[in-house]
Structures are given as C-alpha cells and as structure tokens.
Amino acid sequence: MQRKFERRAAAMLAVLALTCAGVGLAQTSTVAAPPQPQNPDAIVAQMAAQLPPPVTAPSAAPVAAAATESQPTAVSAPVAAPAPAPQTTVIPPAASAPAMPGPSALAAARPPVSAQMTAPVGPGEVGADYVLGSADKIRITVFGEPSLTGEYFVSSSGKVSLPLAGEVQAAGLTLRDFHDHVVKSLQDGYLKDPKVSLEVLTFRPFYILGEVSKPGQYPYTSGLTVFNAVATAGGFTYRANTRKVLIKRASEPAEHEVPLSAETTISPGDTIRIPERFF
C-alpha cells in the first residue's frame, strides 16, 4: 500500500514538472525521487492520459501565485516599475515690452505752449502764476507795435491804462490771466493777432511794523525771508519776541501767527508785525 502511494506521488510530481516547463517557469527546487517502481513508464503514461491538457494562464499573476503555493522556497524577482516619462517644461514667450511712443506722439501729448508770452522776469524770475497788485511795475511789449509797448504801473484801483485798449484789470490776476486780458482787449477792433509779452520790472513793497528799529515800507526783493526783512528794518529791539511773527498776506483779510524762522518767506505787499515779549 505504501509503495503504491509513493508511486502515485512520483507520477504527480512528474506531471507538474512537465506543466511548469510548458508555461516557461523553471523548477527552483529539487525533490528527491523515491525508489523507481518496477514499471514507471506505464504508470506515468496511464496517469498522463487521465489528466486534462495543460492550459496557458491569461496573465502571469495566477501562474506566479500557483508557483509560490506549490514551491515555498522559490523567490520571484521584483518587477521594476516603468520609468516616468520625462516632463517637458514649456516656457511661454516673454511678453513683448510696450512700444515707446515716437517723438511725434510725445509732441502731440504735450500741452500747447503759448509763444505769445515770454517768461516774466524782475529782480528775480517769477512764474506766470505770480499775482499782480497795486504798485507793481510791468513792461508790456506788443511785437510790431512800438506805440503800444511801454512800462506801466498797476494803479491803486488795480488797473493798467493801455493805449487803445483803455483800462485793463490787473490787481488780483496772475500774469497769465492778465496776459489773456491784454490780448483780448487789443483784439476788440484794433489788432487781428497781437503778440504780447510781459515783464515784472519792480514789485510792490512790503511793510514791517512792531519791535524793529526802523519800521516802515521797504522795496521787495525776490526770495525775501522774515530775517531779511527784519535786517532791512534795522534789526529787533530789546523787547522783540524772537520766537513768532504775525504776517498779513496781501491776498488775505487778516494776519496770522507763524514761527519766526529762516524758512518763513515774504511775498510782495505783505505786512509783517514783530510782537513784544512779555518777559
């Protein structure tokens, strides 16, 4: 009985080895064969006839699992994961810089500059926003019309008397506005396209009162400061408050207090008052 069982086991092992060879798997372990029967070929042929034909597995996973169950000592080689495909970084083209406008475009963008009024000048240059006032002396030049060119004072009423044009308001107007008034007055039945330029020859004076040695009226010079005005008036008295000053601007109705410093500027027509100290 025992020999019959051993023969049967040997036959089964032989069939299994043939099946594994059919699917491409190598036998990794060797099982010791029992003693050969008297007629093994007949027994093997009989058992092979009874077994179904070997079937190829659709994938390698079941075969590998069967091989692992039947042969615990076999070690399968690790399957390397496919290398990831190299990624290509696409760099977008750099945004083109905005085109710089040409000289003609820049010239068109600039506001037109009137060539009719030259830069007004005086003891020092003043801008076209300088506000005229009584006692300012102005030179008005009308190109091609020497009879209309001359030097004029702004009267106490704030007007300038011009030939042909008559009385033209000046006080309280900037040089630019006064220039426009003169051009308009000359165009009213006299000149078709007058070319006019303005110059401030002398400014209206400033006034200084209070604790100075010589209070009074003094001519204005460009860039005048409070310290310059005090020096012009002979300096402080011993009772003067040297920390503050009261200034009434020509365009303001009342005086206001400001710190007395070298940065405090004075305009034409201003009234300065140096107060008295209490101790």
Summarize the topology.
Blueprint: H1 2-22, H2 40-50, H3 60-70, H4 103-109, E1 137-142, E2 150-153, E3 159-162, E4 166-169, H5 175-187, E5 196-202, E6 206-210, E7 216-218, H6 226-232, E8 244-248, E9 256-259, E10 271-274
Parallel strand pairs: 6-10
Antiparallel strand pairs: 1-2, 1-5, 3-4, 6-7, 8-9, 8-10
Helix pairs in contact: 1-2
Radius of gyration in whole Å, from Cα? 57 Å
User: What is the domain total for the residues?
Assistant: 3
Number of contiguous helices = 6
Total beta-strand segments: 10
What's the helix-strand series? HHHHEEEEHEEEHEEE
Task: Profile the largest sheet.
Answer: 5 strands, mixed
Strand content: 15-25%
Average pLDDT for all residues: 72
* Coarse morphology: elongated
Helix content: 25-40%
First-last Cα distance: 142 Å
Q: Uncertain regions: pLDDT < 50 for 5+ in a row?
A: 25-33, 57-81, 88-98, 100-125
Going across the major beta sheet, what is the strand order?
7-6-10-8-9
Instruction: Classify the secondary structure makeup into a structural class.
Output: alpha+beta
